[in-house]
TrEMBL record:
Belongs to the Rap family. InterPro entries: Bac_ResReg_Asp_Phosphatase, TPR-like_helical_dom_sf, TPR_rpt. The chain crosses the membrane at residues 342-359. Keywords: Cytoplasm, Membrane, Repeat, TPR repeat, Transmembrane, Transmembrane helix. It is found in: Cytoplasm. The keyword Glycoprotein does not apply. This is Tetratricopeptide repeat protein. The keyword Metal-binding does not apply. Signal peptide: none annotated.
Length: 427
């Protein structure tokens, strides 16, 4: 099957994004446009993806847009990965994940974990990749992020296939493929279909393997999804090699198809794998000239990838310097905050004795006032009691020297003054 010659959909998306970018203001919307362009260029031109990712990172840092900064770092990590600079991809990806965790953004955390898992899978670190993928799966399920879960399930299948645990690989890959179809995720669909072809080929089920290979090629051709086409064509070539040997024409045909797709789409990884496969196939045919030609192509492609990796090292140095400067700024801000807190604590510590002394004096004054008030109240009560007693005594009592003796009622009515009360006239 020959790849379609029409313009790929990714090119149309890139043109649309670049038109929007040309008229966008330097705000958070522009950051998101730059990160989307970095994503679109990741499989096509990794260096362009890195360039757009750097622009997004610079603008996000200038705007103090931490979410955009995290997303830009994740995109940069993918660009460095596709360019073959795995150390830079790991360092940048870890920075992006750490920032996403600080922001507590489930979507960004899931993307960062998935990207780091894919990076480890490409390097053959399957168990580390699975650890990242399962963490991403947990985040996607908890946040109900179906799009992320769709990608992660297929990646888990890829990692199990790399470990030759084909039962687990087919379980997760089939689940991922079903989610692809349900959510209309074409990129993930064609990639998972090609991987299912590889899994069923390893399980000794060539009919199912061819079914998924053909489905992947049919769906990927219209959109020119390069990595899936290369994977599916090369998978069919290897399947024919297992069944009919390297001399089979179908082996060479599908190998050349994989090479053509990689060359047309400027996909060095696909070109390298296809040229190495064809060199081995022609060597088995004892066609030394063809084998040498494809070996030379593989060597040139490897040198190109190495050169691309060297170029990205300069980009990585710039990005790392920016990250270092950001960390220094954060450390300085943290140190300033800690110093401010220490000064505040010192001021409080020096004020505590004075506050205690003031409290003690106020407490003593309060107690003295309470005692004085109690004494004043007691004196007032005693004064009131004495005044009441005197008033009562003056009203109810007369002097004993002027009291008259009571006489019976039959006594004379003439009043007789007591002797002590008779008036004495002067002689």
């Amino acid at each position: 099957m020959v790849p379609a010659t029409g313009p790929p959909q990714s090119t149309a998306r890139i043109d649309s994004l670049q038109q929007q970018l040309a008229t966008s203001a330097p705000d958070t919307g522009r950051v998101l446009l730059l990160t989307q362009l970095a994503y679109e260029y990741t499989q096509i031109t990794p260096l362009a993806a890195i360039a757009y990712g750097k622009q997004a990172l610079q603008l996000a840092q200038r705007l103090h847009y931490r979410r955009g900064e995290s997303l830009a770092l994740i995109r940069l990590g993918s660009g460095f990965r596709e360019a073959g600079n795995y150390p830079a991809a790991l360092q940048v990806g870890l920075h992006g994940l750490r920032l996403a965790e600080e922001l507590r953004e489930p979507e960004l955390i899931g993307r960062g974990l998935n990207a780091l898992g894919y990076l480890n899978w490409e390097q053959g670190n399957s168990r580390t990749a699975l650890a990242y993928f399962f963490r991403a799966k947990a985040v996607a399920e908890k946040s109900k992020n179906t799009k992320l879960l769709t990608r992660v399930m297929g990646n888990i299948g890829n990692a199990y296939q790399q470990l030759h645990r084909l039962d687990s690989a087919v379980l997760f890959s089939r689940r991922g493929y079903e989610l692809d179809l349900a959510n209309n995720d074409l990129v993930s669909e064609v990639g998972d279909a090609a991987m299912l072809g590889n899994i069923y080929s390893g399980m000794g089920r060539p009919d199912l393997a061819r079914q998924f290979y053909r489905g992947s090629i049919r769906r990927a051709q219209g959109q020119r999804i390069t990595f899936a086409l290369c994977r599916a064509y090369l998978g069919q070539a290897r399947l024919w090699q297992q069944e009919a040997g390297a001399r089979a024409d179908s082996t060479i045909y599908f190998g050349r198809q994989a090479l053509r797709v990689g060359q047309q789409s400027n996909y060095p990884k696909g070109v390298l794998e296809a040229s190495q496969f064809l060199a081995a196939a022609f060597a088995a045919r004892q066609d030394s000239a063809a084998a040498f030609r494809y070996l030379a192509l593989a060597s040139a492609t490897r040198d190109s990838l190495f050169s691309q990796t060297k170029m990205t090292q300069l980009q990585a140095l710039d990005v790392n310097e920016r990250l270092r400067q950001r960390e220094l700024a954060e450390q300085q801000a943290q140190a300033t905050h800690e110093r401010r807190q220490l000064w505040l604590l010192a001021a409080l510590a020096s004020a505590v004795p004075a506050l205690l002394l003031l409290w003690r004096n106020n407490r003593h004054k309060q107690l003295a006032n309470q005692q004085l008030n109690a004494q004043n109240a007691q004196i007032a009560r005693q004064r009131d009691d004495l005044s009441n007693a005197l008033t009562h005594s003056s009203k109810t009592r007369r002097p004993s020297w002027c009291r008259a003796k009571r006489r019976p009622f039959w006594a004379s009515s003439r009043r007789v003054l007591p002797t002590s009360c008779k008036i004495r006239w002067p002689s």
